[in-house]
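User: I'm preparing a small set of examples for a lab meeting where we compare how different chains pack in three dimensions. I only have the primary sequence for this one, and I'd like the structure in token form so I can line it up with the others. Please keep the answer compact; I'll paste it straight into my notes.
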Amino acid sequence: MSNSIYAPVIALVLWSFVMWAWLYATRIPAMLASGITYDPTKPVSQMDDIVPPQVRWKADNYNHLMEQPTLFYATALTLALIGHGVGLNLWLAWAYVAMRLVHSLVQSTANIIMLRFAIFMVSSVVLLILAVRAAMVVFAG
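Assistant: Understood. Below is the structure token output for the 141-residue chain.
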């Protein structure tokens, strides 16, 4: 079964692994530099208070990539399975992925909250449109 909407799905999965690697590439050296030893009996927030914000931003973004994008995966895979993962739906899927990538870069580097929020809102609207388009096909049939 071949459907082009699989490409943006896999692209976002791979980007999530890039962020995963980036978070550990910054978190482990920061923990070592500050003398933090991981204690599973203490809340993560205690460690977050010690590591620099620029290090936390990568982990925060990785967590964000595990949240709303799950709706994207469900929607895109549904569109693929019902044969509607092409045309405008494909463009919307790529637009969502591109915006999530930009969101990651903003959050992980400068973390300008209002810019990050604007990108998140636009990407959310794109995802909503994609979901509504999927719903129109699913519920019409």
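A couple of notes for your slides: DSSP finds six helices and no strands in the chain. The domain at 6-140 is CATH 1.20.120.550 (Four Helix Bundle (Hemerythrin (Met), subunit A)).

User: Perfect, thanks.
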